[in-house]
Each structure stands twice: as C-alpha cells, then as structure tokens.
C-alpha cells in the first residue's frame, strides 16, 4: 500500500490537528481505506471519524451493514457516526433515480458530519478501477473538457476537501489487502447488477483493458492528471478571452458577441461555450453533451443571421446577427403596449428603456444621433404616443425619399429578433410615426436651430434608476 502513503507525502496535506472524516460503506474499498487511515493515524496526530449512511435500500441487510461498521469501529476505538435515510422515499419525492438520490443524501450526511467535527477532509474509497469506469462512461456519454479527467484526487468540498488516496491502486489490490488483514468486508449485491451502466463497464470492458495492460489504471490516472493540468491552463486562457466577448447579464441570461468570439481558436470557443453553460446552469444537466456544444458552434458560425437552439432544462440559445442570447426565459408573451407622453414627462418602457420629453431651447448637447428627437410643437399633435410596433408601420425616414417599413429598418439595423416586439415606436396623436428611438427618425424632425422653444425627446436604452416623474 505504498501508493496510499505516497499520496499523503505527495500532497503534504494532513497537518497536526486535522480531522479526516472517512466514508465507510462496509464494502472492501472503504474498509481497506479505514484500516489504512487508522494505521496512518498511529504515525501522525490527526483525528479520524468514520461515517456510514444506511440508505435503507435492502432492509435488514442494509441495517446489518450499519451495525457491522459500528462494531468494527467500536472494537478498534475509532470514532463513528451513522444515520439512516429512506432514500427510496426521497427519490420518489424529488423525482430522482435511486443512485442520484443516494448520492445526494450521502453527501448531505457527510456535510453534516464535517460541520459537527469541523472536518478538514472527507476521504472516500474510490480506486483506480472506479477511475477507469468513470472516465470511460463519461467519454461514451459525450463529456468534454475537465469532465473527461474523471475523479480528482483532491477537490474542494463543503468546508474542506474530498480526498481519494486510493486512485492509484486497483480493486484487486484492495481485496488482497482486506484478505491479508482479515477485514471481512460486506459485499453489496447491487454492485453486480447489469442494469447499472457502471456495472456493465466493470464487467465487460475492464477485463479486456486489464488483459491488454495490467497496469492500465496507472495510464488512466496519468491521463486524468494531464487533462486536469491542460484544462486548468486552457480554462484560464478562455476565461480571459471570453471576458471580452461575453456579457453575463442577469443570472438567467448571457449574451455573446459572435464576431470576436469566432476569431478565437476552436479549442477556446468550445471551452468558452462551456463557461457560459456552467455559469447559467446551477448544476450542469447530465443530458448536456459535446453534441450540444458542437451544435452551438455550428449555429454561431453558419452564415444565416438568425436561428435558435434548444438546450436541456429549458435553456435556449437565440442567435440574431452579431449577438447570441442564452436564456431560460421562454419567449415571453410580449404584451403590446401604448403609452401617452406629454411634455414634461419621463416614461419607463416594458423593455427597461426610458423616454423623456420636455419643452425648452434647442439642447446644446444635441448631436445628430437617433437618441434625440427634436421638433417644434406646431409640427405635431400632442400628446405623443409611445407604443410597440404594429404590422404595416412605416416611417418617412429623414434624409430619404419615400417611406420605409419599420420591419425593414429592424432588419437593416440588425435589431435582435427578441428585442423587436418591445421596441418603442413614437407617434403623435394624429398617427404619424415620428421616431424609432435609437434607430431612425422621420423627416418631420426638420428644424433650423433658432432661439424658439422646441420639444426635446430623449431615449435611454437603460432607464436611470430613481428620479422618475411617473
Ligand atoms: N453508505 C455509505 N456510507 C458512507 N460512505 C459511503 C457509503 N457508500 C459509499 N461510501 C463512500 O463512497 C465511496 C464510493 O462509493 P461507491 O458506492 O462508488 O463505492 P464502492 O465501490 O461500493 O465502495 P465500497 O467497496 O467501499 O463499498 C466508498 O468507497 C465510500 O468511501
């Protein structure tokens, strides 16, 4: 079990006074781990607490496993904590598979024990064969990036770290260890069932790999560590690049600038997409695969200016010209709106923008942009109407002969599809369309700068918080 000791040497982790909680199912892996840790404890001075959760899957048999762990620990003066949770009931309530529910309950239990004992580490008995299975399962399912590294030897968990000191040894090593030390572990019959994917990999794939190379677990472990190193580097690089093209917005949405994104190398693009998805999903769904990432990359790089893609758990990517919006908000039913605007007044619009109107001299700050509309009162009929677009809306565009459909202005200005239904259209009470704020104005804004009074309309895409007259 040199490998076990080397783990601690390599990581120079355990300081005097540390507390290690060890998850013990009663099976050979975790029992060997407990035995090794209590031997190590004799050399060092850390506190060791065994923790066992009875999932109540197999009635008396499960309970016997709990008693077995309790007795094992009591006989050896090892502190032990146990609990029972009706995982089947929990799985039903939460609509989870029994495996996922068991994991959730177990990790919750571990957290409670860590809190109670101020644990620094949670030691788990995963070994090299588990690692091979995990990596292969993820690979076959279509995982990408660091997920392909399988399980980490050390990773942050709750108030401390999960440690897996047995990833460099095999199941056979552990069974031999149990035999040598007469540990007499319990065997969980569900580990043999063919209906669990992991069990099928164990039964049908592992023997072949081990025949090809008896030390194949070392190859997989090395692969895992290399992937983690490479990923850490690439991850940092993609974060740095993505920060320039990705607007996180609220926690349910993100926006990506497509053109500069597509200039990044493909490997950073892939990781960039993954960063967005990690950010939006609190927990990345297992149904999300590299196929989704590839489909997203295809959507972003194809010539067509708009399109969308449905991703698991209701996330949607909506491409529109130079932007792609990632959102959970299902296409909101956008209510048409119509508001009156009589100067002096400020109104906030359903899309969060604001329009203000006041009478006064020609504004000095006026630049000939589309965020202002300035008109003499005699040229319009008050009040102004601010409303959402209607089919057939047309604007007599300033500086152009004839009229132009509002719809075509949106297209030419590359206004994202999801913004068009809420975009304000400003008219006067006689029904003439005066202005598409931020985009185009009508030739009615035909003024000569004089000392007379004007009506000044101003559009701000983001309403200023506070200070509204209405
Ligand atoms: N019921 C449990 N109570 C406490 N810890 C557990 C329990 N089940 C699993 N663990 C911990 O999680 C690790 C991985 O669990 P998993 O079920 O994948 O392993 P296993 O191959 O069945 O291991 P073992 O031979 O120890 O049962 C175990 O080695 C152990 O450290």
TrEMBL record:
| EC number of this enzyme | 6.3.4.19
Query: Which intervals hold domain Lysidine-tRNA(Ile) synthetase C-terminal?
Result: 384-459
Q: Which InterPro entries match?
A: Lysidine-tRNA-synth_C, Rossmann-like_a/b/a_fold, TilS/TtcA_N, tRNA_Ile_lys_synt, tRNA_Ile_lys_synt_N, tRNA_Ile_lys_synt_subst-bd
Q: Which Gene3D superfamilies match?
A: 3.30.465.60, HUPs (3.40.50.620)
Amino acids binding ATP = 25-30
Signal sequence residues: none
Q: Where in the cell is it found?
A: Cytoplasm
Q: State the source organism's domain of life.
A: Bacteria
Please give the Pfam families that the UniProt record associates with this protein. Answer: ATP_bind_3, TilS, TilS_C
Q: Name one GO cellular component term.
A: cytoplasm
Record-stated family: Belongs to the tRNA(Ile)-lysidine synthase family.
- By its UniProt entry, which HAMAP family does this protein fall under? tRNA_Ile_lys_synt (MF_01161)
The record's domain comment reads: The N-terminal region contains the highly conserved SGGXDS motif, predicted to be a P-loop motif involved in ATP binding.
Under which name does UniProt file this protein?
tRNA(Ile)-lysidine synthase
Q: Which organism is it from?
A: Metabacillus arenae
